[in-house]
Specification:
- With 661 residues, the protein is an alpha+beta fold.
- It is 47% helix and 16% strand.
- It has 29 helices and 21 strands.
- Strands 4-9-10-6-7-8-5 form a seven-stranded mixed sheet. A five-stranded antiparallel sheet has the order 17-16-15-18-21. A four-stranded antiparallel sheet has the order 11-12-14-13.
- Helix 15 packs antiparallel against helix 16 and helix 23 packs across helix 25.
- It is globular.
- The model has no long low-confidence stretch (mean pLDDT 89).
């Protein structure tokens, strides 16, 4: 039915736009049937409550397009789509916006023939989103040489059969009938918006997107656009008393800066649920932060009383974690560096001493600034100093929970997370992912008690002189062999937080020949271990978080850091699937390593090869860092790469194992 319905709709619509209700009545189907039939078909364009068929709507129109030399050569793009994957463009491109924006959706879903002067197909034009000038842009492209000899002005002749692209000596002047159609279309589709926070609140800002104006104008008076070539879109809009800014259209002289601030205010309100008063305070804070590095204390006000009041106000606002998060995001959006935030927060702290104002949000920002500056001791100290039973700031509590977890204080970490509102509830959409991950990380250890023969009323083994029940009962550390998997997870958490780019790089290298495995590889323990060992994040982990680790964990982490990677051959297996034992032989040295606590797989057989780093824990070895299967034919190549420290070469060997051919 869908194909037949589409053909019927094309016939009914013709080269104009027909209301959806009318189409449904004439086609004797429901409006929902029509929406389903055309929802992924880019040949159909929605214009208000009407539907148009783009090939017919544009038939006979000629669009004038300036050709940018860098775009035509492909030099403007960084070679990727917006998601970082390589784009499919063989050569140059033309940006769809603004000149060809009405054709973009058609070309996204339906490659359109590019025709020569005789109507013969040369190649096909397509539309794709790529990264250009620091943002995602829709671009139109054909074969590698399709723009050769075209420019600096090109004419795109559109018919139902395809598009012919020809050079022009100069762009035409705006046609009066087209100008009138554009103006009438704008007056019809431009929307007035609530002016709260937008300059003079007595005025309601009016604007719309450029594609809506152009489609409405084509639908209203298609003949005007077929009788003469169309001037470049910005010139056409200007002749209609309109101007274009980042895809939006408004009256000439529109306050675009005011619109940007208004949109940003709405974004912050929606994202953080801030009131108007909070938004006013937030924007005042951001403004002061921008100025404080330049003019010092004057950024807080003109008199001592004004400056003192501003500091107290800002500290009080930042005591709300939602405002703290919004402040950090907004300063980053404006390009402020952490030195500016550091100067700002230092000034606040210096000016509110003795006032009793809650400085928890300022403290969290100061800790972040210390961490960014590599001042790890100070970052930890300032959190530990300011968190107590009265603290309610969720970001500060979560940071304290990370510190407690690294000290292996699972119960305390859980208490801090609970106070911060981090729980596994039904609705987790607003909770930070890293905090939820921490909750999962500590869960296996929160209810476990260390094994001990000390009785409640015996002297505490720690030597404090107090009774065991008054000192360490319930606070005992688990044995190191029980904490070892947690220690490794702490290192993995560090990688996710501090070296995500490196983790993505390694996962991409491993999945070079199997893109669909990338998402599963990025959280694989073996991938984490490559980042920790080959890319030396163990050193960073110990430098930044080592002071928090219990002494025995810090010493064990230093041992793990120095364990070399090797190629191993399976000698034998023993035990159950859940708690088995794997006897491995180092292929390079013939050393035998017995790995305990392995989840044995029935596919593991003697003489099978693996790449890995069995990690020592006491008198045994563990497989926490993971093993990577390796074909015996690649063993020498893998060992050579490991011996030479050629990390990318090792990734290449391992990636070959995942080839889908």
């Amino acid at each position: 039915m869908s194909t037949e319905l589409v053909e019927r709709l094309v016939e009914l619509i013709g080269n104009g736009a027909v209301p959806l209700a009318e189409l449904a009545e004439r086609a004797e189907v429901s409006e929902m049937d029509i929406r389903r039939a055309v929802q992924m078909d880019g040949r159909f364009a929605v214009i208000g409550e009407s539907l148009a068929y783009s090939p017919a709507l544009h038939d006979g129109t000629v669009w004038t397009v300036p050709i940018d030399p860098d775009d035509a050569s492909g030099e403007s793009s960084d070679g990727t789509r917006s998601d970082g994957t390589p784009h499919e463009i063989p050569g140059g491109f033309v940006r769809a916006e603004p000149h060809l924006i009405t054709l973009a959706w058609w070309l996204v879903t339906n490659p359109v023939p590019r025709l020569d002067a005789d109507g013969n197909e040369i190649d096909r034009l397509r539309d794709v989103g790529i990264w250009v000038d620091d943002h995602d842009a829709d671009v139109i492209y054909g074969s590698a040489d399709w723009l050769e000899g075209v420019g600096p002005i090109a004419a795109f002749h559109v018919t139902t059969d395809g598009i012919r692209v020809e050079p022009l000596d100069q762009a035409p002047a705006p046609d009066p009938d087209q100008v009138a159609a554009v103006r009438a279309a704008y007056d019809e589709v431009a929307t007035e918006h609530d002016a709260s926070g937008f300059g003079d609140v007595s005025q309601r800002p009016q604007f719309t997107v450029v594609v809506s104006v152009l489609l409405e104008a084509l639908a209203r008076n298609g003949d005007a656009f077929r009788k003469a070539p169309i001037a470049p879109v910005p010139e056409l809009l200007a002749a209609a008393g309109l101007e274009l800014n980042d895809g939006l259209v408004a009256e000439t002289g529109f306050d675009w800066d005011g619109l940007g601030a208004w949109q940003n205010r709405n974004r912050l309100s929606a994202a953080y649920g801030l009131s108007d008063d909070q938004l006013d305070g937030l924007m005042m804070m951001v403004g002061a932060c921008e100025l404080v590095a330049e003019i010092g204390d004057a950024a807080f006000g003109g008199t001592d009383d004004e400056r003192a009041g501003a500091r107290i106000l800002f500290a009080g606002l930042l005591a709300d974690s939602s405002i703290t998060g919004a402040f950090l995001q907004e300063t980053q959006e404006r390009g402020l560096n952490f030195h500016a935030i550091q100067t700002f927060t230092e000034s606040i702290l210096a000016g509110v001493g003795g006032t009793g104002v809650d400085v928890s949000g300022v403290v969290w920002l100061r800790s972040l600034c210390h961490a960014i500056a590599g001042e790890w001791d100070d970052a930890i100290r300032i959190v530990e100093t300011h968190v107590d039973e009265s603290t309610t700031h969720s970001l500060l509590l979560v940071e304290a929970a990370f510190n407690a977890a690294d000290r292996s204080e699972a119960a305390k970490a859980q208490q801090l997370l609970t106070r911060a509102g981090v729980t596994r509830a039904d609705d987790e959409s607003m909770l930070p992912e890293e905090a939820l991950r921490l909750l999962d990380e500590i869960q296996p250890f929160t209810g476990r008690r260390a094994r001990t023969d000390v009785k409640r009323n015996d002297p505490c083994p720690c030597g404090s002189g107090r009774k065991y029940k008054q000192c360490h009962l319930g606070k005992e550390a688990l044995a190191l062999d029980e904490r070892a998997p947690w220690l490794y997870e702490k290192a993995c958490r560090f990688v996710r937080g501090e070296a995500p780019d490196m983790l993505e790089f390694v996962a991409a290298g491993l999945s070079e020949h199997a893109d669909d495995l990338y998402e599963s590889l990025i959280d694989l323990p073996f991938t984490m271990d490559l980042v920790l060992d080959e890319y030396e994040e163990w050193n960073q982990f110990l430098e930044q978080r080592g002071q928090l680790l219990p002494d025995d964990e810090r010493e064990l982490a230093a041992v793990w850091r120095d364990v070399p990677r090797a190629v191993y051959a399976v000698e034998s297996t023993r035990g159950s699937r859940v708690g088995g034992e794997l006897r491995l032989r180092n292929v390079a040295t013939d050393e035998i390593v017995v790995v305990a606590g392995v989840q044995l797989d029935e596919r593991i057989e003697p003489d099978q090869y693996f790449v890995g780093r069995p990690l020592p824990v006491g008198d045994t070895y563990r497989s926490m860092s993971g093993f990577f299967p390796l074909d015996a034919s690649r063993a020498d190549e893998a060992m050579a790469a490991i011996a030479a420290g050629e990390n990318e070469a090792l990734l290449g060997v391992l990636a070959a194992e995942l080839t889908l051919d």
